[in-house]
């Protein structure tokens, strides 16, 4: 509330992966100490946006969106998705989705804003079927609407975002954010594209006292403009990288490698002779925003890196050349998992053998191996997933089909070879299976050794073979995609014939992403969770927090180099 800082409203989508009661609009009247749910339509429909009338803050507009993710897809729109209004601070609400001029249900994602220059003027970006969406404007506080722009770029919904923001001074100026940032100065009839530093634009704040000053949040980070969007600050000054995995090379001083969401791959020095590690100390190494990176043992100038849909590249820093060495080269963008010959995970493993420096493994729903730098590949396993047909179909709907490769399921998510004994290979799938081969991988040699307590559709996130015993291994798994936020850590000492759950001391809610064993001190383990990091001195029997000054962030992966523990967080970059 612009008049009362203790009165706050929150639009909540709730847990992404399941029906739950934490969806809707919430209100606090004591600065956030306590909250009351003031708008709730059902456990599958959350609130995605709010607009407040600055002249009368008791008038609010809420955009509701039915959206639920599954491990294998995303269903959004329809149901009770729509636009709601309150005139009494949230005590009562009216569904105004049927107002004249708006498209009829089913509706998808809606962005809503109120013009501070004219509070009777509303703007909405509306997703609707049959080309019925676009930019809509109301001149009477939502009673009637007019579609003012029906260009294709405003009908689409990129993934889960799209928003609209009114200028605080000029009622004819409005900004629309989707894949790009757009500005109209003629009431929405025409738009120009603003050149922000990064795409996938989510949210825009405009200073109500100086509309030339604005802050945008996009997939690259946060960026600031002081001239109404003509120029913007860089996004390369914030420790907000979203890493998936981390690895180091074998040079001195060593370099750290990782793929960061929406900001390419990176190789960065672990120390610098400049007194600080700066932008001069890092460079990209091919690949893309997701996946593993594998520096060539003995030659840190060469790195293999992945990205979505199975793309795998070989980068040579000496020549600057990037070569596509993917297992398969077809583009299946827009296709379901059932349509493709090989199902590659968004972050599919790329792992060098610790015994043969020219042996490189990668995985789809099978394990592949190359010994010639990716010039040729051959499969060394059958399908090691459940591959339930119900999980392999098209994703999205009922309005937008979301098939970007992130939804491909029934893939091998975790893979590793024992550092103790060559040919002992471990594979874990995103649909809940664990396999081991003890002879380097032949179809007949793979054994299903899934822990009995793992559960169907559990994602096996990391498998860590022991550095001391050939038959020992640890695994980290999670079930947050089943709305289960418990930690899952397991240990075996007999090649997977039996498993012990080792989670004592890791609290509920800290679901597990990774586990690593110290290669020198037997029994010293580290576990990365969604909320931080834990360590065990007794081989997993008991765990304690190792948070210290590490930000509260998702610890997706870790690696150990000498006496250093390197942590890859999803949102707060690398920490050592």
How would you describe the overall organization of this protein?
This protein is mainly beta. It folds into 2 domains: 8-225, Methylamine Dehydrogenase, Chain H; 333-575, YVTN repeat-like/Quinoprotein amine dehydrogenase (Methylamine Dehydrogenase, Chain H), CATH 2.130.10. The protein is 1% helix and 37% strand. It contains 1 helix and 46 strands. Strands 4, 5, 6, 7 and 8 form a 5-stranded antiparallel beta sheet that branches. The protein has a 4-stranded antiparallel beta sheet with strand order 9-10-11-12. Strand 7 and strand 8 form a beta hairpin. The two termini are 42 Å apart. The model has no long low-confidence stretch (mean pLDDT 96).
